Amino acid sequence: MSDFIDLLGLPFMQRAMLAAIFTGLAAPAIGTYLVQRRLALMGDGIGHVAVTGVAIGLLTGTSPTWTAVLVAIAGAITIEVIRERGHANGDVALALLFYGGLAGGVLITGLANESGATLQTYLFGSITTISITDVIVTMVLAAVVVLVGLGLAPQLFAVAQDQEFAKVAGLNIRFYNLLVAVLAAVSVTVAMRTVGLLLVSALMVVPVATAQQLSRSFRTTLAAAMVLGTVASLGGLLLSAYASFHARVAPGPTIVLLALACFVVSWPVGVWLRSRRRLRQPFPVVGATAHHTADEHPHEHGEDCGHVAVPHGDHVDYVHDGHRHAAHGRHYDEH
Amino acid sequence: MSEPDTEPPVVELDDGAVAIAGRPVLRHIDLTVRQGEFLALMGANGSGKSTLVRALTGLWPLATGSLRLFGTPFDRFHDWQRIGFVPQRGGATSGVPASVWEVVASGRLTRRRPLRPLRRADRAAIDDALEVVGLAHRARDGVSSLSGGQQQRVLIARALAGEPELFFLDEPTAGVDLPNQQVLADTLETLSGRGATIVLVAHELGPMASLIDRAVVMRDGLIAYDGPPLASEQVATAHLHLHEHGHHHAVPDSHDHAPHVSSLIEGGTP
């Protein structure tokens, strides 16, 4: 255990922890808007395009982080334009960029005489080798994503919720659509060093999917997703560091699997909550119908009697075995 | 305030036409809506009534013609807070849960500047909008847990939150049960009573029939009738009635000119 504490004190580990926290906050902040637009896979599309960006950086000898940012933004804008013009379905546009980006990246990496191992650090992340400059870039970009994502939340929410209404409300929907695309591209490159380009989308989407199991409002979904993203990325990093004394455990996949584990835990709870909410929805009040008295009824209904109590106008119906029983004097009525 | 007579019309479309993918859909539309009117835009499916509302709100560009809103030419119109739009249903839910309050609050964006918190007036308008449609008690619930009719009321409250003077409602009663239609009708009566101008696209008027001041019937992209409200069985034959205002393109009333037009659309050799 003391070895683990010592490990946390090492500079590379502290850099990795900072990167993990900022990535964990930023990726779900923009991922929530992508899920809201039903473009959950957009992060994946941009991630694949960014592979080409990384390869161009390797080929030209410039920083792969910056070439990845630029190419990812270009790719995200292309996806958005194709989608807006309606030339192809959103998912077809994504697919085209998926394959083009990945194939181009692998081809150019070969041209640059770089090994697959170099590319792999970008595909699957290498958070523990992150340099001090990269940490600063990650923190700045992540902070921009979070500030814009939260600051313009009312506008981004309205545009993602209903484009036509937002347009008639006078919002510049093209600006906000492109803004989401650019922010998504930026957070993909931010998360590139943490979980890798191929797993980026998991950190943008899985915490949102987990959060919405339990939430009813957009604001709680957004906030909970950011908390869950941070828990997953920091927790996954620490878990892999702790396990590294016994086996080779890569942080990127650990982070993604931890995020998925959170979903697996929350999903049954969400199913239970939703079915409970449906069962307890008030029965509609309609005009008086014939008066039916329940047959012999030895059980006495009441609070915590074990049966689902559903509001029905000015009284409560108790639901069991396909019947709705409402107290009426000393007997129960069938409602 | 000046005299009502000198106020410019709320909506003024002169010889408007809309083409979708190059095909003329709406032609020769002259429509003037005055302040405080309650107008029903009626007609069969595909007659162009929804397209007309989308043209009036700027969602479809006009191929020809000029549109003025509140006396301002459309390209220079920026007073979006004066317009409340209720699109055809399908917009109340999205990929992420949203509460009723949040959806209604997004209607307030016409009056809010970016990066500013909600002011007290904003909150009051949102609460009032929820109150008018009778959903104040469901404000914290998820929109997806509401019935179709209730979701439609949420969309009306969203338009209401911006406190507009002119409402465009696109088929708010489609697929909505009778009790919810009654609530919608009561809501529109309240709005109309507050002085709002209402343009309502409807296939069936149902409980709203008694509120209408004026009916415009669309048929194959043309205005076939513009005049006092019609009973629903009259709508189908409205193009046979005489034009109230005698448009310049008016043709003999019993003459059905649809075939001539369709040959133009198909691109037949002139």
From TrEMBL, chain A:
The chain crosses the membrane at residues 12-34, 65-82, 94-112, 132-153, 190-210, 222-243, 255-273. It is a multi-pass membrane protein. Keywords: Membrane, Transmembrane, Transmembrane helix, Transport. It comes from the Bacteria. One of its GO terms (biological process) is response to zinc ion. CDD domains: TM_ABC_iron-siderophores_like. It holds the Pfam family ABC-3. SUPFAM superfamilies: ABC transporter involved in vitamin B12 uptake, BtuC. InterPro entries: ABC_BtuC-like, ABC_TroCD. One of its GO terms (cellular component) is ATP-binding cassette (ABC) transporter complex. PANTHER family: ABC-TRANSPORTER METAL-BINDING PROTEIN, METAL TRANSPORT SYSTEM MEMBRANE PROTEIN TM_0125-RELATED. Belongs to the ABC-3 integral membrane protein family. This is Zinc transport system permease protein. It comes from Nocardioides soli.
Automatic annotation (TrEMBL), chain B:
PANTHER family: IRON TRANSPORT SYSTEM ATP-BINDING PROTEIN HI_0361-RELATED, METAL TRANSPORT SYSTEM ATP-BINDING PROTEIN TM_0124-RELATED. This is Zinc transport system ATP-binding protein. PROSITE patterns: ABC_TRANSPORTER_1, ABC_TRANSPORTER_2. Residues 244-270 are annotated as: Disordered. Gene3D superfamilies: P-loop containing nucleotide triphosphate hydrolases. Keywords: ATP-binding, Hydrolase, Nucleotide-binding, Transport. One of its GO terms (molecular function) is ATP hydrolysis activity. SMART domains: AAA (SM00382). Its EC number is 3.6.3.-. Residues 250-259 have a biased composition (Basic and acidic residues). Residues 11-245 form the ABC transporter domain. It comes from Nocardioides soli. The keyword Transport applies. It holds the Pfam family ABC_tran. It comes from the Bacteria. Belongs to the ABC transporter superfamily.
